[in-house]
Structure formats: structure tokens, C-alpha cells
Amino acid sequence: MTPSGTEANGGASNLLRTSSQMRRRQRRGLIAKFSLLAALMVAVAALVTLIVTILNSSFGLVAVENAQSPGDLVTSRGYPEGTALGDLSKEDLVALLEAEISTNLGRRFEREQRFFDSRLVFEDPYVLNDLCMSGEPPPACYLPARSPSDVEALVVERVVSPTIVGTWSFFSSVFDRDEVEVFAAEKYPAAELEFRSWLSWDFVTSPQSPEPAFAGIRTALFGSLWVVLITLVFSFPVGVGAAIYLEEYARENRLNAILQTNINNLAGVPSIIYGMLGLAIFVRTLEVITSGSFLGTGGEATANGRTIISAGLTLGLLILPIIIINAQEAIRAVPGSLRQAGMALGSTRWQTVRSHVLPNALSGILTGTILAVARALGETAPLVVVGASTFITTDPAGPFSKFTVLPIQIYQWTSRPQDEFRNIAAAAILALLVLLLTLNTAAVILRNKYSRRTA
Amino acid sequence: MTTVGKPEVNEKKRVDLDVPMETSTGMGLDTVAMEAVDLNAFYGKFRAVRDVNLSFRDKQITALIGPSGCGKSTLLRTLNRMNDLVPGARAEGEVRFHGQNIFDASVDPVELRRRVGMVFQKPNPFPKTIYQNVAWGARINGIKKDLDDLVEHSLRQAALWDEVKDKVDESGYSLSGGQQQRLCIARAIAVKPEIILMDEPTSALDPVATLRIEELIQELKVNYTIIIVTHNMQQAARASDYTVFLNMDPDRAGYVVEAGTTGALFTNPAKQETEDYITGRFG
């Protein structure tokens, strides 16, 4: 403390005494601090509630009723009691099917995929031969025979035919287990109570099914990945290119100012509008291209223009302004002194941009792109308009396939009346979150790698 | 490459030098590296530099001094058309370099900047290694052979080699401020310019680093023409051969008050304005 300072305070002892004005200042500071903390708490509480709700529906007890018990089926084929269905030979499993399902259903399965390469079980060889000679041969004509585990899955689905008759949330399953058991024993005497994780490997790898117990998200997952890939391939180069032009080349004139304002506004246009745009442009006008018929690949399998490529381009348009704006900010954040240094050495504008501006803006550009892609991955409305399939069991084979995506699958499941669909919807939400997290982590790693290289 | 008719150069210069100049004190008959004729620089409607007529001597150090905002930097940046990069900036009049007006449509500003290099106020190395900092300019100008030699030679010329020879693969940012500025000078040298423009190269440095740069500038004079803007009158007096004093008119446009050898200008200024400024009565 300077001597003049102590004098102004009227002696050293006053330094330690808090004046009333100081107390007021401190109090205001505290109020501000706690208000900010409260805001953070609200945000955290909302997030935690969301996650807990989803987890609560994704795991829990279920009451399962089998049409036929697996134990009885196993012993009926002469195996000792306690043998699992999976241990049966393929012949025995097929024999079970033969005994239990109708011939018509068997024929349908056999046309999808044969049970044995050597013989036919349900189908008449001549009929199948004729079918294979026809213009549209069924898959059985070119696919190899079903594997034992495929046959086992069929037996479980069609013969054992477990039905979930009751489900409980995670919390009641854990904390009120006794009550649940009493209730289940009373209401579903034939059912067995088991703990089920709705999110499982089977769930991720199975296609859609009308039975919630067998439904999975494989088709939607592949659909989402394909759509996001197309989105990225389209919007990243176009968006970053536009951003570079606007920041580094465009002059400050009225036209460019209007352009910039419009791009900013486009980022706020409701996504359903982009859906209408996509429907008009990609699905209808460019149908020849988006259906793949210009390549000769169109046919029964495609859905006119309602294909992955239409969806990907639509979402690409949707996130284009976001990518442009973020890339512009990243480019603008590169210090002008670097550009000047480059230009003063006799480099062209592009050499400076290429060697100095882009490497330094890259991490920012990538961050913006990640956010944009995450948004594309979660979009539902525009894809409903563009025409994503609501029920589809075949995986997309390429950009010209019909498709569904995870958010649409989730939306569709949550609108079903049965309880179990809400459980698988929650599991699908978890899968979507995991997918988003994985993509984000990958991008963050990529970004750190680049920013380390240039620093 | 802008091809310039070499034999005509000297003749044309002599002719141009006969043009009566407002401030031709002591500057004229020696070889001229660059020459401004009736040069005006504008930012939009604002005139920042007014009617400048100057010749810059070959292989000599010319200092531009004057109060803040008098257009020293604008003038400097006009000489290699770096001001073209500022939106709304334009220049009228002529700057002659090898007998050619650098504002001619036939002059490629990229090639001009290669031959008239620049060092900035704040050290601005690229966020790359020391080696890449020096080699980049050469590489983009098409020099691919013997880059190692070129880097070493440039760093030696910038009096930095001994300090960094063991760590040329480290980031340019790992150096101290003064070293960074010498790295920037090495980077400018590596593209083999004829003239180096320096915009207050020591204003961000401490006195010791400043002194090193000043010594370096003296050494560079053997090979390069140097035009340096400085705020520091002692620096101009210490480190330059010629000094140009600029001032601001009531419209805030900079104009040349007086130019001459540094000795003459500081000891025996011709104008009262100059004397007021160098004796510290204003500015």
C-alpha cells in the first residue's frame, strides 16, 4: 500500500474493516454468482431428467408367455431335458418348423431363402424352378441356404412365439420387484418374468418387425449412416467452398451483403420447408437421377425419387447454411497478419488460403460441421416429407434405395399404442445418442489431430 | 514474371529525376530503386497520403518518420500494393520500379510483392516450423532445389542461424519476440527481393532486441534497399541514411514536409515544422 493510500483510508486499521458500500458490492456479486449457478442447475436437471427417463424405459422386467415352451419342443425331438434350442441340429430345427407351421408360410420362407441346398422342404421343386426362370426370381434362387442360427430364430419366432404380455420400468423393476412379481403371478400365471435390456446386440442387428420383441434398428441405422454420408459429401465441400469465397474473395458490395443476409436467414428456416423443397426438387423434378433409373438400376426395389440420395441432398441443403456460417467464422478468426505475411512474400491469394488460412481454420470448420451433421442425424420432419419409408425390413443397398432413418423409426414406434413399442423407442433413442456421441468423439479426435499439426 | 526492359531503366530514371520535386533535398542523382511521383492514397473518399514525390536510393536505408496517423504506413504499403488488400483502398499517381509504374494493369501485384518484400510491425511468423517459415515463400515462388541451403543462408543473413540451427523443426512461435522478427526478416529475404519495406519493425520489441534488428538492418543494406517506417526518431537518426519527414495537413492527409540525408535533416532541418517535430515540440 502506498503511503497516500493509507492516508486516504484514514489509517492502516481501516484496511481490514469492510465499508457498507463494499458489503453491498460483495452482496451483488454473490447474487449474480448464485443466479448463474441456478441457470446451470436448471440445464443440468433437464438433461438428467431426459437421460433418466430414457434409461428407465430401456431396461426393466417383462412378462413373457410362450405359445410352446422350448423345453417341450426339445424333448419332443428326443433330446434330453435342459438342452437349449440352439444345440439342436439344423435338421431337427427344420423338422420342428415342418411340424408346427402351415405349408403356405413354409413356402414363403423357403422362397425367401432355402433351408437346405440339397433339398426343398415346403416348396415344390418345379414351382421354384419356374419362379427362378421368371422375370423376377425370388431371393431363394441366388441366396445360399439358411444358417442353423437363422433357422433357430425362425423356430423361436414362429413356434415358441414368445409374447411379451407385460412390461415394467427400470425403477419399479429394481425397487418394487416383489410387488411386480406378485402382480405378474396373479395376472399372467402362464408367463415367466425376466429382466430385459431392450437395447441389445440383437436389437441393433435385427431389421424392423411388427413384433416389438423381435424388432430392431438395423435398417434404420444403415439408413441414417447412408443419408448422413450423402449429406456430408454434398454439404461439406460446397459449404466450405462457399465460405472461403465469401470470406477471402468476395468484395464488400451490396450484392454480397444481400447474399450474406440470406444465408444467415436460411439457417433459421424451419426444417419442414427444406422437406418441401427436397420433395419438389429431388424427389419430383430430378426423379430420373435420384431414382437411379438413369443408371439402369431402377426397378421394383426403388421408390421412385424417394431414395437415400434425395434425403441426403435435402438434409445437405438444410445444413449448408450452418456449415457456411460456421466455416466463415472459423476463417474470419484466422489472424489477418497471417494473410498479410503470406501475400507479402509474393504468394497468390489461393496459395495463402491453402497454406495458412485453411489449416488454421480447419479445427473450427470441423467443429461447425460436426454440429451440423449431428443436426442432420436427428432431423425427422424433412424426411417425412421427402418420403422415408415407415415400415421397411430390407437394408439400403446404396444411394438409390428406399430407406428409413433412426429418428423416423423412433417417431413411428412412439406413436404405436402398445407399451412395448415405447420401450424399443427408448432403446432406439439410446442407440441414436450413442451414434451421435461416437461421431462427435471421432470428429473431436480428428480436430485435435489437425490443430496440433498446425500449431 | 513481369518482364522489364532492363537497358531502358536507367535512362528513364534520369528523365524522371529531372521532374521538379517538392522535396528533392539531397536525394536524386544516385541510383534510384523506387520512385513515387504525385502519389496519392485514398481509403474510400478519405485521402490518407497527398502528392508524394520521393525517390528511394538503391542499397540505402530510408526512414519515414512523422506523427501518428500521418500516412507513413499507408505510403509504405502502397509501395508494394499491399494496400490493395484493404477494402476501399486505392492509389493515384505513380510508383516507378524498374521504370515501370506499379499501378499499370500489366503489373502483377503478386510478382511485385515478391520483389518488394515486407516486414510488419508485430512479428507474424506462420504457425509452422522455423524451417517451413523460411522455405514456404521460396517454395510457392517455384524454388524447389537446395531449399536447405536457402534456409540456412537466409537465417544467417537475418543473424538468426546460430540461435536456431539446432531447432529449425520447432515451431516459429517458440522463439522470443526479437527472434521472431528476425525470422520474419529471414522469411522475407528467402524470396530474394530487391527492396524490403519495414513497418515499425521494432515497436513491439524490447531495447536489446531493437538494437539487434537495427544492426541487422545495417548489414542487410549491402544487398537490399530498405525503407523503414519508424515512430522512434532516435532509431531513424541511428539507423538510416536518408530520412523523410511526413506530417498531416488539416484534412488529416499526410504529405512530405522534408526529405534528405539523415544527417542534414536532423542537424539542419530546412523547415520549421521539421525542427519542431525532431526537437520534440509536437508529435
How would you characterize this protein structure?
Chain A has helices at residues 3-8, 20-58, 70-76, 90-100, 103-112, 125-133, 148-160, 170-175, 177-187, 201-205, 218-249, 254-266, 271-285, 287-290, 308-332, 336-344, 349-378, 381-386, 406-414, 419-454; strands at 59-65, 163-167, 192-197. Chain A is mainly alpha-helical. Chain A has 2 domains: 63-201, no CATH class; 218-454, Orthogonal Bundle (MetI-like fold), CATH 1.10.3720.10. Chain A has a 3-stranded antiparallel β-sheet. In chain A, helix 16 (336-344) packs antiparallel against helix 17 and helix 19 packs antiparallel against helix 20. Mean pLDDT of chain A is 86; it is low at 1-10. By secondary structure, chain B is of the alpha/beta class. Chain B has one domain (6-278): P-loop containing nucleotide triphosphate hydrolases (Rossmann fold, 3-Layer(aba) Sandwich). Chain B is 36% helix and 24% strand. Chain B contains 11 helices and 10 strands. In chain B, strand 9 and strand 10 form a beta hairpin. The relative contact order of chain B is 0.18. Mean pLDDT of chain B is 86; it is low at 1-29. At the A-B interface, helix 16 and helix 17 of A face helix 3, helix 4 and helix 7 of B.
